[in-house]
Amino acid sequence: MEVILKNLTKKFPSRDRKNRNEVIAVNDFDFTIPDGKLIGLLGPSGCGKSTVLNLISGLLKPTGGRIYFGEDDVTELPPEHRGIGLVFQNYALYPHLTVRQNILFPLENLKGKDKLSREEMLKKADEAAKLVQIDGLMDRKPRELSGGQQQRVAIARALVKRPRVLLLDEPLSNLDARLRLQTREEIRRIQRETKITTIFVTHDQEEAMSISDMIVVMKDGVVQQIGKPQDVYDSPANLFVAKFLGTPPINLFTGQIRNNTLYIGNDAVLQVKDMPDRDVRVGIRPEGFILSDSGVLTCGLNGVEVMGRDISVVSLNDASANPTVRSIVGTENSLSDDTRHKPEGSKVRFDLIPRKVFLFDSLTEERISCEIQQLAAK
Amino acid sequence: MIGMLRKIKNSGIKGWLYLLPALVFLGVFMVYPLIDVFVYSFEQGYNSASQTYQGTGWYNYSYVLHDPYFLQAVKNTFLLVVITVPLSTGIALLIALGLSSIRPLRKFLQTVFFLPYVTNTLAVGMVFMILFKKTAYSDGLINLLVTWLGGNSVDFIDGPYWAKMFVLCFYTIWVVLPFKILILTNALASVNPDYYRAAQVDGTSKTRIFIRITLPMISPMIFYLVITGFIGAFKAYSDVVALFGTNLNAAGMNTIVGYVYDMLYGDGGGYPSFASAAAIILFAIVFTVTCINLLVNGSRVRQ
Fold first, then answer.
1. Residue A118: C-alpha distances to residues A131, A158, B141, B175 (Å)
2. What is the pLDDT of residue A241?
3. Distance, in angstroms, between B219 CA and closest chain A CA?
4. Sign of CA dihedral B277, B279, B281, B287
5. What residues of chain B score a pLDDT lower than 70?
6. Closest chain B residue by Cα to residue A106
7. Sequence-separated (6 or more) residues with CB below 8 Å from residue A83
8. Which tens digit of pLDDT belongs to each residue from A11-58?
9. Is B198 in Cβ contact with A90 (below 8 Å)?
10. Which candidate, A164, A306, A310, B54, has a CA 20 to 30 Å from the CA of B254?
11. Residues A181, A186, A189, CA angle at the centre, nearest 5°?
12. In degrees to the nearest 10, what's the CA dihedral of A49, A50, A51, A56?
């Protein structure tokens, strides 16, 4: 089911007595979620992503705008008539009911022509349980299950009525790191098998990037960028998106463009085509650095961190907006051995990979799109 | 020497030492009297002044169980328990549900409902006298209402048994309501709203939400209220005095605790043996009922 949000806006009345301004949690959302895809709503806490989810579910009424499921305008429909499945952050499993009773619960609410016989209900519950692989736990109480198992039960309960849209609120935040990895694969698999349009909310960019077909990056109730995870990562629309995506985070520098050359500090690092001279902010992904004795960017070495497959070179640069510059160089990099034994404070030089370097306007923080190349001398 | 100190440390003597003051007080004022009452109940014609008795055996129990006043008291107490405990818990639940589903005036209404709890029993009794008592000058407010509705005025305080029982139950329910409402509104508020949202998304009807989600979630609190309600109602005494005065046997409204008191101090009084036997019987009843409660509900309540 395609989900279309048209100029969706949600304002909350202010609780603050002195400041009567309304809080705009969702501001003029306008996008289409394609049918049968897994979509991640991504943003820092308080950016309104859960509000969007609640608006789609119908638990909140929008202040303005419309919501369509395919052709149907569901804006005025109460949640129970929208055909959605909702998985809560804390799962909200009924603690006094067994797993089977929990999964049966939505089916037992069906009335009139939708009413099922007991056998049909049990069959459907078993199917849902099989799908999420908890069919061996049907007679347990939720408190006897691990966090990951509870999560599966919650998903089974949301899926048992075959919803048109499945909504997941921070599905992985209550799980430990290892289980998180496993569960996100699981969500991906379940979504692929059921082909139900699934929207999930997360503040963890890695989570969203790894399993989503499409991510929606939000900040302060405004959509920043929508696209395939890799596209958004490779081509961030603005400084916020660039900073929010990627671990370790992007390195930021203040720089200038002079004579079609990009300067970081006093180092001429790259060539930019057809740009007037101006101040810019430069973002360089950690993997955009190449250690090179003749490199264009000179930094002071601060330390080397070896983390399995990667080596991080942590260095200092006066033009850096962050305390340190963190670059990731593969272990296969022949120079890394030398670098590791260099004393702290000695010079390290990097070449930069042009497509990993982004320029942003210093004031609006919007991306400046331009062609970036290696320096001609290279 | 050091070894001995360590031994003392390990055996927990220090812990017992800290508990000693409390234990002494409990022993002197709780355990010893309890044992004493138990002993008295088997001593025939015990006289507390001369510390003498005529013999031991079941005589006191036999006397008490054949005493029509005691049987009346048992009947009254049981009626009171059976009527007021379920009713007051049910009404309190309804009011608590109402309170938690409204927004405006909630705090104000909560205060209003809590007022009887902080009001003195005897003062409340006086108010009930005004409401129900027939005097030379008026029939009481309730009778005004009854006659206005076309009924015959009833003497609720000195009249027929059912009328007196009605007043007593009405009063008891009214007095215990505030505490129950307080407990239940808090229990309702502590249910995670996500359960209701989940139920709403699944299209659960209001009644089903109440029966399948709300009730099981607050069942431990309801269970607590029922148990304490039973125990409290079995021990009813001061309320009855407030309504019907001290000559309860004459009014036919005595309770078991009232009977015990009368045997000790009531006109002439001085029958500690009978009082002890009645007290032990009351203890046995309360104990049995509580055990049954625990057995019946304990398995059903969500722990």
1. 20, 19, 57, 47
2. 93
3. 10
4. negative
5. 1-11, 136, 267-269, 298-303
6. B202
7. A1, A69, A161, A163, A164, A165
8. 888 766 666 677 888 888 888 888 989 999 998 888 888 889 999 999
9. no
10. B54
11. 130
12. 100
Interface confidence, given as ipTM, is 0.80
Of A56, A46, A57, A40, nearest to A12 (Cα)?
A46
CA B209 – CA B153 distance, rounded (Å) = 44
Nearest to A80 among B195, B200, B302 (CB): B200
Question: Given an 8 Å threshold on Cβ–Cβ distance, is A85 in contact with B208?
Answer: no
Asked if the A3-243 domain carries CATH number 3.40.50.300, the reply is yes
Residue of A nearest to B214 (CA): A94
pLDDT digits (tens, 9 = 90+) for B188-214: 989 999 999 999 888 888 899 999 999
pLDDT band per the 50, 70, 90 thresholds, residue A338: low
For B193, the closest chain A residue by CA position comes to A92
Domains parsed from chain B with CATH numbers: 2-56 (no CATH), 67-298 (1.10.3720.10)
Is residue B262 a contact partner of residue B248, using CB atoms and an 8 Å limit? yes
Mutate: best of B103, B191, B194, B202, partner A, most A CBs <10 A: B202
**Mean pLDDT score across all residues of chain A:** 86
Residue B302 contacts A, CB cutoff 8 Å:
yes
pTM score of the predicted model: 0.78
Structural tokens at position A134: 């908890």
Structural domain boundaries in chain A: 3-243, 249-374
Residue of chain B whose alpha carbon sits nearest to that of A158: B202
